[in-house]
Amino acid sequence: MAGAAAVEKKLAEYKCDTNEAICLKLVRFPEDLEDDSTTFHPEYSHQSFGDDEVAFGYKGLQIQLFYTAGNLSTLFKVKYSSKVNEKFDCVEADDIEGKIREIIPAGFTCNTDDFISLLEKDANFKPFGTLLHTYTVHNEEAGDLTYQIHKADMTCPGFQEYHERLQTFLMWFIETASFIDTDDDRWDFFLLFEKYNKDGETLYATVGYMTVYNYYVYPDKTRPRVSQMLILPPFQGEGHGAQLLEAVHRFYCNLPKVQDITAEDPSESYVKLRDYVLVKLCQSLTSFAADKLHLGFSAEMAAEAQEKLKINKKHARRVYEILRLKATDMSDEEKAKAYRLEVKKRLFGPYRKNQRELTKMRKCLRPEELVSHMGQMDTQVQHEELEKSYQDLVADYRRTIERLATQA
Predict the structure, then answer these.
(1) Which of 48, 72, 282, 348 could hold 67 in an S-S bridge, CB 3.0 to 4.6 Å?
(2) What class of enzyme is it (predicted)?
């Protein structure tokens, strides 16, 4: 038994955290290859390495996935200091290369010199599709940096292969990511690039992207639905997500056939980003003027937001609540109470539905079944949950208002 325990302990030394082992880079210059400060790591690797996000069979494992900054030409290498089957018989190490090959498309290189040759060709890379928007961001070290947002589709030469490389990042940074069917021509692709200088030439680096699916709405409209959105980690926290989402909204606002714009299973961070962008867009609308907010959410607000900005009623209501909070003196007890009741009235909708269901249950359930369901709908618990929902919502709204103030 002691011997088995010792072997098990030794084998445990051959387990590696794949979120640490996977090393990603966006390479602009050859020296970036040896610069650890340009390396970033996944947030998730469970889709390749299981829920534990562990690779077995290696010590000092390093899975290198390095991309040229523009065209995303890929260098793939697996390094380790020791492998389990070199020390133990009848024990197999995980097939690292096989797992990664399931994600990255063919065409990568495993040779550093070949990768540097591909890096030199990045000077010829140009963004795909149509330029929608250009903006600058001030960087203390580099000065003013210029960014471009382009709209592309699968008819753009070379874009399909580029997209196959780009979408691999989804697996490392979106928990429930999956690859899309690019044969369907209802997909729109929005790409974000940084312009930078190298040896006197202007080059382009990939910053992030968004995919949008155009659903049919009877009888003659479409409903663009955001499916995936990712700003690559080296560029996060610089406001690029808001720039991309706003540019996409403005693009669809100019299309008469668009009903409204929505999102597929939005994450909490995406909802907060959308709140910021939609409030920024709506605050200049006549129906959302400060002197009209205290009158409550109106049909005019819903209609103007939908007509001019393709915002649906549910999202317009959130915008109204944020702008009303911004315009309300919450130190005034009466005004604060009016705001609180207005928001809670909307939040109470699901609880009111529970009460109607309970009334129906009283007519058809046996007493013991009714007691069970009543326990789930305890009034006191409902009130506590409602208050918590309200406080959490207001906290989120305040963060949106603070961000608006800093960006003004």
Answers:
(1) 72
(2) transferase
Give CA–CA dist 373/285, Å, rounded: 45
Q: pTM value?
A: 0.91
Kindly state whether residues 137 and 247 are assigned to the same domain: yes
> What CATH code is carried by the domain that includes residue 198?
3.40.630.30
Question: In whole angstroms, what is the distance from residue 63 CA to residue 42 CA?
Answer: 11
Q: Mark whether 264 is an active-site residue.
A: yes
User: Could you tell me if 345 and 250 lie in one domain?
Assistant: no
pLDDT the model gives residue 11:
80
Residue 217 near residue 233, CB atoms below 8 Å: no
- Asked if 131 and 119 sit in the same domain, the reply is no
**Does 300 fall in a domain?**
no
* pLDDT tens profile 124-176: 999 999 999 999 998 888 889 999 999 999 999 999 999 999 999 999 999 99
pLDDT at 363: 62
Cβ partners under 8 Å of residue 215, min gap 6: 186, 222, 223, 224, 225
Count of CB atoms within 10 A of residue 65's CB? 20
Q: What is the pLDDT of residue 84?
A: 87
Residue from 92, 175, 264, 384 carrying the catalytic annotation:
264
Residues 101 and 154 in one domain: no
Quick one: pLDDT at residue 273? 97
Q: By three-state DSSP, how is residue 288 classified?
A: helix
Q: What is the pLDDT of residue 142?
A: 81
Domain count, the chain: 3
Whether 38 and 26 map to the same domain: the answer is yes
Residue 43's CATH number: 3.90.360.10
Examine residue 367 and state whether it is found in any structural domain, yes or no. Answer: yes
- Considering only CA atoms, which of 203, 183, 187 is closest in space to residue 195? 203
User: Quick one: 105 and 147 in the same domain?
Assistant: no
| Helix, coil or strand: residue 284 | coil
Q: Mean pLDDT of successive 10-residue segments in the chain (408 residues)?
A: 63 92 98 97 97 95 98 97 78 94 97 98 97 94 93 96 98 95 96 94 97 97 97 97 98 96 95 97 97 96 97 97 97 96 87 58 57 58 86 97 90
Give DSSP secondary structure letters for 131-198. Answer: EEEEEEEEETTTEEEEEEEEEE-TTSTTHHHHHHHHGGGHHHH-TT-----TT-TTEEEEEEEEEEEE
Task: Kindly state whether residues 19 and 94 are assigned to the same domain.
Answer: yes
